[in-house]
Amino acid sequence: MFSWRYENGNWNEFPTFANDYEILNATDGDYEFEVIGQSAGFLNSPPAKRSFTAEGKTAPPVTIPDLFIAPIDQHRAELHWPQSTDLDVRIGGTIRIRHTPVIGASASWVRTNDIVDAVPGSSTRMIVPLVEGTYFIRAVDSTGNESPGTASVVVDLPEPQDLFIAQTYREDDDTPAFQGTKTNMIYSSAETALILESSGLIDDITDFDSLSDLDNFGDTKPSGSYEFLSTLDLGAKYDLELLQTLKTRAYTASDFWDSRTGLIDTWVDVDGTDTSRINAQTYVRSTNDDPSGSPTYGGWQPFVNGTKRGRGFQFKVEATTTEPAQNIAIEELGVTTRLQRRTEQERNITSGSSAKAVTFPAAFMERQALALQRRIWTAEITSRFQASAGPASP
Length: 394
What we know:
Elements: E1 2-6, E2 12-14, E3 29-35, E4 48-54, E5 68-71, E6 76-80, H1 87-90, E7 94-100, E8 113-114, E9 119-120, E10 125-129, E11 133-140, E12 151-155, E13 163-170, E14 181-183, E15 185-188, E16 193-196, E17 223-227, E18 232-252, E19 278-287, E20 301-302, E21 305-321, E22 326-350, E23 366-375, E24 378-386
Antiparallel strand pairs: 1-2, 1-3, 3-4, 5-6, 6-10, 7-8, 7-9, 7-11, 11-12, 13-22, 14-17, 15-16, 16-22, 17-21, 18-21, 18-22, 19-20, 19-21, 22-24, 23-24
């Protein structure tokens, strides 16, 4: 007969022929156990007793030691790493995967954003967008404890030779910077960056002289967005390569305890050193219509790099924080749009005495060269241009 009780509560008795017993859904606290042997004549042996204090999982998981990357194509790569040695990471935990465009000593976890959603803690591989910079991973156990360190890998991509840059946007290079539409976001001259607004009200300020930073008065709002100032109009429908520019850092607006309004039990970081609860994601939407008319846009889609078809394109970034004391500073924000170079040919064209017009099925943004070669009664025209799709004549 096996018996147990929790925190001096009622005894739970379980007859068993086995030499072990599992208590499911156990929680932290004090337990008492008794085991009594019973004969066929229902005579009981003296009980064997033991007490036990379950402390739970309080230590952080072990840092994953290595991270590797293998390119798949120009847009994707596969990250792989050794499996976590902690059971409560493999069961119920996650692996966070983040990225920063920074390379070298300045690359750190606080400058990263999620490149993909966190994966189950038992995972050892994940396909991610392939972009230049530093990738980081971090183990998180089932109770939310993060490993003290991270594993990282650097990607330094060669400059692509077969792409033509159509347009480069840099919202931080405008004067003044970040002139687009802001929702719950402001430009902070103190941080020299785009940040989330704070929830504090001017009427709540009792002493302006003692206020060190008006932009960060009160808790940080949990989310905000910024829509780029300009719409990209290519003039025709093209397959456009997109590559984000997104450089951020996390910071704690104030390290003073009195400036935090939440209960201390809800703080993810008491000493202000773990500023990893922020994130930013770029989005794009497109239309095949003339953007200057009455265009119909598709839905917003997240991107890091990739290809999207359309004539008009709009971009935005969404920023979030899950810790009211932490904010995000978006230092660099933009998009590089590129078109693939290609060659098209039209053959066996009947020649005439007058000028001959040849219309290609797909348009080009910029004409580079034209060659004409006569072959008795036919002509072959080969045209090489920079770009992509829609009607055009040589």
